[in-house]
């Protein structure tokens, strides 16, 4: 009888340990999918690809805290300070800064903003810092795409003032623009005065 009770207790303890391991594995799987989606979003891609990974990221970001709470697992991104220096957060690797390799001052400023949020996320890997980092760095990618796809913009140098070229009833069109550039005579001004 003692052996049966001991065996029953041993089986019960083994089952509890296996269930806890399965619970931790489920939460770990969700966290891994979340990190994979974040990585894929940083890599960029077409609109449908990005939408798929955003949906995956958002879904797993909602499910991970639920899983951790459901199984009573403490949040792995929270570490306890022990007074021996800076905390080492093993779950968030430090991301490298984006190099400023452009002469465009607007793009340089956008890259500086991205780098600021990368540093903030590296120092404190919070959800808010992650969102700000992703948004700022996506702006860098978007601006680079726009600059590489756009042809050089024409420079507008006025030769006449707007007042000299304005059409009746303050109509402004391409003819007024050409007049201001000195490419067209303002015939409508002469008609207006007659």
Summarize the structure.
With 194 residues, this protein is mostly helical.
Would you mind describing this structure in some detail?
The chain has 194 residues and is an all-alpha fold. Helices cover 65% and strands 0% of the residues. It has helices at residues 2-43, 47-70, 105-123, 127-149, 162-165, 174-181, 187-193. It is rod-shaped, with a radius of gyration of 31 Å. The N and C termini lie far apart (121 Å).
If helices are DSSP runs of H or I spanning 4 or more residues, what is the number of helices? 7
The best one-word shape is rod-shaped
The helical percent reads 55-70%
Listing every helix as H and every strand as E from the N terminus to the C terminus, the arrangement reads HHHHHHH
Largest sheet: none
Gap between N and C termini: 121 Å
How many DSSP-defined strands?
0
Feature tags:
194 residues; mainly alpha
Topology of this structure?
Layout: H1 2-43, H2 47-70, H3 105-123, H4 127-149, H5 162-165, H6 174-181, H7 187-193
């Amino acid at each position: 009888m003692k052996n049966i009770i001991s065996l029953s207790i041993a089986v019960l303890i083994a089952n509890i340990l296996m269930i806890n391991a399965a619970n931790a594995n489920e939460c770990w799987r969700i966290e891994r999918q979340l990190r994979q989606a974040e990585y894929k979003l940083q890599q960029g891609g077409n609109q449908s690809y990005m939408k798929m990974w955003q949906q995956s990221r958002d879904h797993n970001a909602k499910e991970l805290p639920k899983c951790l709470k459901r199984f009573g697992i403490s949040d792995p991104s929270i570490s306890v300070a022990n007074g021996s220096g800076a905390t080492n957060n093993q779950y968030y690797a430090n991301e490298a800064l984006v190099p400023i390799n452009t002469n465009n001052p607007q793009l340089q400023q956008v890259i500086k903003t991205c780098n600021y949020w990368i540093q903030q996320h590296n120092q404190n890997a919070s959800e808010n810092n992650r969102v700000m980092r992703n948004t700022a760095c996506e702006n860098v990618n978007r601006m680079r795409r726009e600059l590489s796809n756009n042809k050089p913009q024409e420079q507008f140098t006025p030769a006449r003032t707007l007042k000299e070229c304005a059409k009746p009833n303050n109509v402004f069109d391409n003819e007024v623009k050409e007049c201001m550039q000195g490419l067209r005579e303002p015939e409508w001004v002469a008609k207006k005065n007659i």
